[in-house]
Specification:
- This protein is mainly α.
- It has one domain.
- 69% of the residues lie in helices and 3% in strands.
- It has a 3-stranded mixed sheet.
Length: 301
Amino acid sequence: MYLEQVKKFTANPILYFIFPISFIGLIAANYVASEGVDTNELLQQMINSVGVNGAFIMLIAPLSVGIFAIWFWVKFIQGQSIKSLTTSRAKVDWKRIFFSFSLWSLITIGMTLLAYYSTPEDFVWNFNPQKFAIFFLIAIILIPLQTSFEEYLFRGNFLQGLALVTKSRLVPLLITSILFGLMHIANPEVGKIGLIIMVYYIGTGLFLGILTIMDEGLELALGFHAANNLVGALLVTADWTAFQTHSILKDVSEPSAGFEIIFPVLIVFPLLLLLFSKVYKWKNWKEKLTGPLEINKGAEI
């Protein structure tokens, strides 16, 4: 089982928290340092200085490189295999990754088309073939690395570490979901829409955590997260989002906190969980999400 398998490794439990807490602390420090600063204005200044692609690379590259850092930490410092950080199966199930990626990509495209044809006045055509092609090449390399880093950090290393020390399933799920959401608190969207958008970020973290625990691995979460960020960045940009890109469309509407936040969290994500549960025959929801864990290790904090 995904959470229980950490008992096979002998690393001191404190090692499971050094990397996640350091990263969260860095995010918190940057947020405090930027308090009172208009992040949208800073982002525009960066774009004016190095261009859209340059700003995108500067923002996402540290997270993209982070995937290699956490793999190194887990393998050589914790002495844990990357496979065990990824899945409880005998090998990584790439079909699960591609299924989740394809499913959410199609849904994202469909919802974007629906929004475009329902309220065309909210969008302008932003497509420039040359600029889009260059951005596409940058995005397909960096974004999956960035999203994988976040999954391996929160739903992988941090989730397993919390399970190890709390002997619980629910506590790690809630803590990692909340901290995943709070990690986005410095995004320009928060300044534009308000803290209510944290409902979406934390709700997404909870959805991805449930995916990971119920499916006994990161594969579905890896596919979904990559599709969400990659397809979203290629399709639509806006002047008030963290990812400002050479996308196909540009959203020129005034953002609001309402249906766009509640609909995914309360409707779409539960339906996706139901679909995945049917496809992969999940059972014992209560036990797997809230039941105790039997993990006994010799190493102590």
